[in-house]
Write a structure and sequence with these properties.
Layout: E1 13-17, E2 20-24, E3 35-36, H1 49-75, H2 84-109, E4 125-126, E5 156-158, H3 174-197, H4 206-231, E6 247-249
Antiparallel strand pairs: 1-2, 3-4, 5-6
Helix pairs in contact: 1-2, 2-4, 3-4
């Protein structure tokens, strides 16, 4: 798995062949540039045979995520403010990649040494950043139609409690479980702040796509780490991933 794949995609055609992934690139002339992400496959250690299929599946997911972000970049031209691309596209993409990369590391770690430091490969950037409007252009005026105003963002984010659903925690896993439970609370607090500071950005699906969706990805990875920590010395709890999704409550 020492293939070095280009991680910048214009219009991507994904193909899974053998143990690797192929990406065909085409220049679509997107006005906002293209999304560039670090290559994950080339940074992986030797992959155990029993983990190969799962790793390949998640590598394909990483490329699908970039392709979807590229498509969104092209189809949302002119939407939101100067931070729209970061908040609604690059930020959620980073969150999704972090969760997928974590699944790759966990898969390898089941039968070999778990690779460390892969999380640094999650962040992506815009290779030719033109997301912000030129300074000479007038900023978009807020909507004057009262029916078009986005009032519902004043609610709060409600997530299932994970701690109360855990079995007895082995002493050897206590510190790691506590650390990840604290991280779950931090993730909710960060999503709450993002909900407050992004009022007025994006369309009706903005909260789901840019806040609740990425929060679910982060929680999924964190909950999985909790289950893995417990499973090292006791029965691994199952079904905790059902606690990852959150909702917006009034």
């Amino acid at each position: 798995m020492n293939w070095r794949l280009p991680a910048t995609i214009g219009v991507a055609v994904l193909a899974v062949a053998g143990g690797g992934l192929g990406i065909a690139l085409a220049d679509d002339g997107a006005a906002r540039g293209s999304i560039s992400c670090p290559d994950v496959a080339s940074q992986l250690p030797a992959i155990p045979a029993r983990a190969q299929a799962e790793v390949d599946r998640n590598l394909a997911v990483l490329n699908t995520q970039i392709a979807e972000a590229e498509n969104r970049l092209a189809t949302t031209k002119g939407q939101g403010g100067p931070n729209f691309v970061q908040n609604a596209i690059l930020g959620p993409l980073t969150d999704k990649r972090a969760a997928t990369i974590d699944r790759i590391a966990i898969s390898i770690g089941r039968s070999a040494a778990r690779p460390q430091g892969l999380e640094r490969l999650a962040s992506c950037s815009l290779s030719d950043e033109e997301a912000a409007p030129p300074e000479s252009e007038e900023p978009a005026a807020p909507p004057t139609d009262e029916g078009a105003a986005e009032a519902p963002r004043a609610g709060s984010i409600s997530c299932p409690d994970v701690a109360s659903r855990l079995p007895a925690i082995p002493a050897s896993a206590g510190a790691e479980v506590d650390r990840n439970l604290a991280l779950l609370n931090t993730q909710i607090a960060e999503a709450e702040r993002r909900l407050e500071t992004s009022a007025g950005e994006g369309g009706p699906a903005f909260v789901q796509n840019a806040i609740l969706g990425p929060l679910e990805d982060k929680r999924f990875a964190t909950v999985n780490r909790i289950a893995t920590a417990i499973g090292r010395t006791a029965a691994k709890p199952v079904g905790l991933d059902a606690l990852a999704p959150c909702v917006l409550s009034d």
